[in-house]
């Protein structure tokens, strides 16, 4: 009788141990599944955020996100009372002719090539964007007008030397660049953009493939 009872107790113990083990395994699997779903959700949110803030063709930040960052710099400079940024507008010369002559895929490759040069030659702290069409905007952080002019000329020169090959045909491109200085007298993004845009217009009018500077008086 005692042996019989001991046998049943042993069997019950083994069964309970099995149930407990199975429950622990299922709980562990459930936790792993939840963690996997959380990671998937985080990755998806990051992907959506990137799509919302970046240009899909060039990988640069888009106009809306650039304007937010530019405003942050303007507010920072006004708060500390010192100018430390250069604002550049860069426009690819005769871009419509490139699209018309070689097709839009060629135009896309030109845009990607320019974006690659900008990303390669500028610093990580600089803010670079494709703000639409063939126009790029750049904020050179902690640089004065003289240093900014040197950087802009180096970019212009590098792009002029770039040779893009499309279906065996070589395409040479140039850019015009308008520059202005962001100091504590600048009150808005629209204001700084207007000065840079005016400088860009002058650079185009003078024959393209050059830079011009327009400073607030």
Architecture overview:
- The chain is an alpha+beta fold.
- It contains six helices and seven strands; from the N terminus they run H-H-E-H-H-E-E-H-E-E-E-H-E.
- A five-stranded mixed β-sheet has the order 2-3-1-6-7, with helices on both faces. It has a two-stranded antiparallel ribbon with strand order 4-5.
- Strand 4 (163-166) and strand 5 (169-172) form a beta hairpin.
- Helix 3 (95-102) crosses helix 4.
- It is elongated.
Brief rundown of the structure:
This protein is of the alpha+beta class. The protein is 60% helix and 18% strand.
Radius of gyration: 29 Å
Determine the CATH topology of the largest domain. Alpha-Beta Plaits
**Class computed from helices, strands and strand pairing:** alpha+beta
Distance between the termini: 107 Å
Instruction: Report the order of strands and helices.
Output: HHEHHEEHEEEHE
Described by the principal axes of the CA atoms, the overall outline is elongated
Query: Total domains, how many?
Result: 2
Number of strands: 7
Helix content bin: 55-70%
Q: Please, what is the average pLDDT?
A: 85
> In what order do the strands lie side by side in the largest sheet?
2-3-1-6-7
């Amino acid at each position: 009788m005692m042996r019989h009872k001991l046998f049943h107790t042993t069997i019950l113990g083994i069964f309970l141990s099995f149930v407990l083990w199975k429950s622990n395994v299922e709980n562990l699997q459930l936790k792993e599944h939840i963690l996997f779903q959380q990671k998937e959700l985080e990755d998806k949110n990051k992907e959506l955020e990137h799509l919302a803030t970046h240009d899909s063709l060039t990988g640069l930040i888009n106009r809306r996100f650039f304007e937010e960052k530019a405003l942050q710099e303007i507010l920072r400079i006004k708060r500390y009372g010192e100018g430390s940024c250069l604002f550049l507008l860069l426009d690819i010369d005769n871009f419509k002719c490139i699209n018309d002559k070689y097709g839009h895929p060629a135009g896309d490759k030109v845009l990607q090539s320019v974006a690659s040069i900008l990303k390669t030659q500028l610093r990580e702290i600089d803010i670079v964007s494709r703000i639409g069409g063939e126009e790029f905007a750049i904020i050179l952080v902690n640089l004065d007008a003289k240093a900014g002019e040197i950087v802009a000329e180096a970019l212009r020169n590098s792009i002029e030397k770039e040779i893009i090959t499309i279906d065996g045909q070589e395409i040479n491109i140039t850019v015009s660049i308008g520059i202005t200085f962001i100091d504590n007298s600048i009150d808005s993004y629209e204001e700084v953009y207007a000065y840079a845009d005016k400088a860009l217009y002058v650079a185009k009018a003078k024959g393209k493939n050059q830079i011009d500077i327009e400073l607030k008086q």
